[in-house]
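Lab notebook, bench 4. Still working through the backlog of constructs that have no structural model yet. Next entry is a single chain of 147 residues. Request: give me the structure tokens for it.
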Amino acid sequence: MRRVYVVLAGLQLLAVLAQFYFAGVGAFDKPQSGDSYAMHGTIGMMAIPVLSLLATVVATLAKAPGRLIGLSITPLGLVVVQMLIIILGRALDDATGDTTTASLAVLGLHAVNGLGVMAVAGRVLAGARRLASTSETAPKNATAPVS
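Model written out:
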């Protein structure tokens, strides 16, 4: 189960890296269209949340420490924050739908929060690998020490 957790955590980090890649693709797409950020949106709204939920369930089943289980669900929460940033930023656009200084200041936080998602995904993978390596090095017939 711990190896499955490592695989899911690795897939989640890959999804976050793909998220940044497709944001770049969307930013440089000319002419800009409604499809420019399609893959970015799909990964952000589907792949990362699903992988976060699966990793959290598997971490729980693998008897990971509570802190690591909590960290595993954090990318899902940060994706919700991403959506709230966009909603608030768009609410600050002017009457014609053009961005304002205030909306740009808020929307810029989308990239900063994305870095947070990446950092958390990296920490989850590191924790999952550490957890898996401790179970592999433990003797198969070891019993818990009596206190």
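Notes after review: Residues 109-137 form the longest helix (29 residues). DSSP finds five helices and no strands in the chain. Flag for follow-up if needed.
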